[in-house]
Design a protein that fits this description.
Largest sheet: 9 strands, mixed
CATH class of the largest domain: Alpha Beta
Strand content: 5-15%
Shape: elongated
Distance between the termini: 58 Å
Structural class: alpha/beta
């Protein structure tokens, strides 16, 4: 049975009153998604597809927006809490009758890293509750936690001694409801009071998000597990910055780092709030890319070269937009293959045009460029199969340094532009040929070296024995 998630979405959000006067806080927009949509889609990426949402203040608007969840690819059931002004503990209790197995408890106004949820779900649960905690210094309004040996000793906004804080992400068993009821009987109204009851019974433990491995191989960088409680407009601004920064891949070449990245981030921050999908951006990029190839073929070299830079500036937008809007798809996994195809169409088209003057040599050069690039790419694949913790481009300091200017699209289009401006486009192909060869030799030798050191290459036994 798939685990369900309970989302508390009943409160008003008084500190964002200018935004929540006519709109419930969970529907506040952040980079094209409402806060509660971000919670749902992040949980969905962690494998959760069924949600129970407790609504209160302007709850009909939340139900009208999310409906049964089909638009988001999930199933949603709603529970009404007419006592939403009393405290979040009453919202949690409303779900007692519908949650009879372990479940995830989330807040509708917290954004968080999906890795936290994936790790939390896989935790061995020996208590009635596991609370994901952060080790950062508490800020005003944070719920502080004192833990010892993995168990919660005390919790609350005003406790004197603490060593971590509550992230608002929980793995619960149904027994938690009995602790919450005990807190309510004592006249207490906050969820932390119910957790404190479980802690008093030695029945509440912690999951430390700072211990999660922060290196993401597909992103080629460290991304520390993050979460944010959105309470103010300043929080929204900071959340926007964090989401965009985390969507950027690391260890890029110099052009991508210092020119493409700020341009892409600016474009993404605007497109995210519009009804533009990552796949639509991908199609637009490919149209522009092949238009550039056509211009090379027809001899409009300067226009073609400038268009390749525009394509380069836009090339990362679709991926970032997908990550920011939590809209990854199987089609999106083909992006690298399509990029590879249109990039080499440029060199081939330029070579065909130049062959009118220089004979078959430009076409021969473009053929070898393609072969060397394919070889470099396959070295990365072979390395990835043998050593899975980091990609080849980010494995060691030498690779990280070479990655800044290695043989790839951004280096090649600079060679082409320089050659066109100097009226020597043939030598652009020569430069690309040389640099693709250097890159192939570098990545081939480094792959063999690393796999040998890791014991992934074994000598073949000669035929006939010794």
């Amino acid at each position: 049975m798939n685990m369900k998630a309970l989302i508390i979405a009943a409160g008003k959000g008084s500190r964002l009153e200018s935004l929540t006067k006519d709109e419930p806080k969970p529907l506040i927009q952040l980079l094209g998604l409402s806060l509660i949509e971000r919670v749902i889609l992040t949980a969905k990426q962690a494998g959760i597809n069924e949600f129970v949402i407790v609504v209160g203040y302007l709850g009909d608007k939340i139900k009208a927006e999310l409906e049964d969840g089909e638009r988001l690819g999930v199933k949603i059931n709603y529970i009404e809490n007419e006592e939403w002004e009393k405290g979040n503990v009453f919202s949690v209790l409303k779900a007692k009758e519908v949650l009879n197995e372990n479940f995830i408890l989330l807040m509708s106004d917290h954004i968080f890293d999906g890795g936290i949820l994936r790790e939390l779900i896989d935790s061995d649960m020996i208590s009635s509750l596991i609370l994901a905690i952060d080790r950062r210094k508490p800020l005003p309004g944070d719920t502080k936690v004192l833990e010892k040996n993995g168990k919660i000793v005390d919790i609350g906004k005003h406790i004197e001694e603490s060593n971590c804080i509550d992230t608002g992400i929980f793995l619960c068993s149904p027994k938690i409801f009995s602790y919450i009821e005990g807190a309510v009987e004592e006249g207490k109204t906050e969820l932390a009071d119910g957790i404190a009851k479980a802690a008093d019974n030695g029945d509440a433990e912690i999951f430390d998000i700072t211990q999660i491995n922060s290196y993401i191989p597909s992103m080629r960088k460290e991304i520390k597990a993050f979460w944010m409680d959105i309470d103010t407009k300043e929080d929204l601004i900071e959340a926007k910055r964090i989401l965009i920064e985390n969507a950027c891949k690391g260890r890029n070449d110099l052009l991508a780092t210092y020119v493409n990245k700020p341009i892409e981030n600016f474009i993404v921050s605007r497109l995210a709030n519009r009804r533009v999908t990552p796949n639509q951006v991908t199609v637009l990029i490919n149209i522009a890319a092949y238009a550039s190839a056509f211009l090379f073929l027809e001899g409009y070299l300067l226009f073609a070269s400038l268009l390749t830079f525009i394509v380069s500036f836009m090339d990362g937008v679709d991926g970032k937009l997908s990550r920011i809007k939590l809209a990854s798809s199987n089609i999106g996994k083909m992006e690298h293959a399509f990029d590879y195809l249109f990039e080499h169409s440029w060199y081939i088209a330029l070579a065909i045009y130049l062959s009118n003057t220089f004979g078959p040599m430009p076409v021969l050069l473009s053929t070898f460029i393609l072969l060397f690039d394919v070889f470099s790419d396959h070295c990365g694949s072979a390395f990835g199969k043998g050593i899975k913790n980091r990609p080849l481009h980010d494995y060691g300091r030498i690779e990280q340094l070479f990655r800044k200017f290695d043989g790839r699209k951004n280096s090649y289009i600079i060679f082409i532009l320089i050659g066109v401006l100097l009226n020597a486009p043939f030598w652009s192909l020569v430069a690309i040929f040389v640099w693709s060869l250097v890159s192939a030799i570098f990545y081939g030798s480094r792959t063999i070296l690393h796999l040998s050191r890791a014991g992934k290459l074994t000598p073949r036994t000669p035929i006939g024995g010794d």
